[in-house]
Design goal:
This protein is an alpha/beta fold. Helix content is 29%, strand content 19%. Strands 9-8-10-7-11 form a five-stranded parallel sheet, sandwiched between helices. The chain has a five-stranded mixed sheet with strand order 12-13-16-14-15, with helices on both faces. Helix 7 packs across helix 8. It binds S-adenosyl-L-homocysteine. S-adenosyl-L-homocysteine (SAH) binds next to helix 9 and strand 16.
Amino acid sequence: MPALLDAGADVLLVSPELTPALRAHVDAGRLHWEPRRFVPDDLDGAWLVQAAVNDPAAAASVSAAAAERRIFCVRADDRAAATAWTPAVTRHGPVTVAVLGGGDPRRAMTVRNAIRDLLGARKGPLLTDSVEEGPPVNFPPAEGRGPAAGREPAADRAAGRVALVGAGPGDPELITVKGWRLLTEADVVVADRLVPGLLLDELRPDVELVDASKIPYGPSRAQEEINRILVDRALAGAFVVRLKGGDPYVFGRGGEELLACAAAGVPVTVVPGVTSSIAAPAAAGVPVTHRAVAHEFTVVSGHVAPDSPASLVRWDALAGLRGTLVILMGLKNLAAITETLTAYGRPADTPVAVVQEGTTGDQRSLRSTLGAVAADVVAAGLRPPAVVVIGDVVGVLDT
Ligand code: SAH
């Protein structure tokens, strides 16, 4: 069903009952549902029929009606009785490979996976004439269009483009499947300091790798320089992957980069990532929510001191929350932050965990309390990157 919808099919579902997954498609208006049994007239105007019922006689009557009208019919119950089969598919830019396994779907998938690996390892004009597989997420805006509508012919597209890809929190296996695929297709990769090095080891040898953390100048000039590199390379025709630690939009300046590309007319795809604000606590045994313990979690940047005029954070309001507080970039100001929270009323015995380099082989963490954590972090010698988790969820999984 997802493949049909993705291809832009206008799907009519005839069935007295729905599975929850199908109900979700119906509720979202993606397909039309007739809540009854099949009648032959249902096939009027159809191009393809899929009979998926566990009653062979009912399936046979659908098949017969389809054959009479010369409409291809896929049979879930009896492959031999079908006139069409659903292949295992792999897509690589403009190329689609569909595999039929002679009646054994597992065989089809195994062969498909082998082909996918083979093509994924390769890159050449055949497989990459700058066509993105899915629609760009944010720019140009895709609102109001179906999933297939984002696919424009290659000729309509600027040659180059940018993908803002979340690399995940540190463990190189925590990048998304899509992020990984785009990374293997990139001509240019602009990577952050927090990006797992192992991911970069796997790039093709001819990829231009730009280490954004080595760009001189102060932070804002460096950001301008990064934006310029993204735009220049894309306008020159390259596929540029901007690889960022965690999720691109969580304190990652992903939005600024998107706007810079948009202003230059460069198409951008955003691929979300597993954020350290959730993953680092999880890696240290702390769930950011837990039933009957915390019904909220708030992610806050601690890089500006609470008493600074530049602070945008209402620490007084945060102190009044009962749920989980996750602080990123908070080690330098930890003493001031914890003092502010206790001064505004969060109890000093609230449990706290600090996780350094979460999900990596170098992960270190400690447990403390709001009143003691700042001193404990100094004593233990913890250093950035680290997240601070405050709340009763700390310890809830301890057995
Ligand atoms: N976009 C990133 C966050 C960037 S801000 C994300 O979604 O994860 C950088 C801060 O993230 C660091 O100072 C630290 O607080 C946190 N951080 C990133 N990776 C981390 C890791 N592996 N372990 C602990 N904290 C991490």
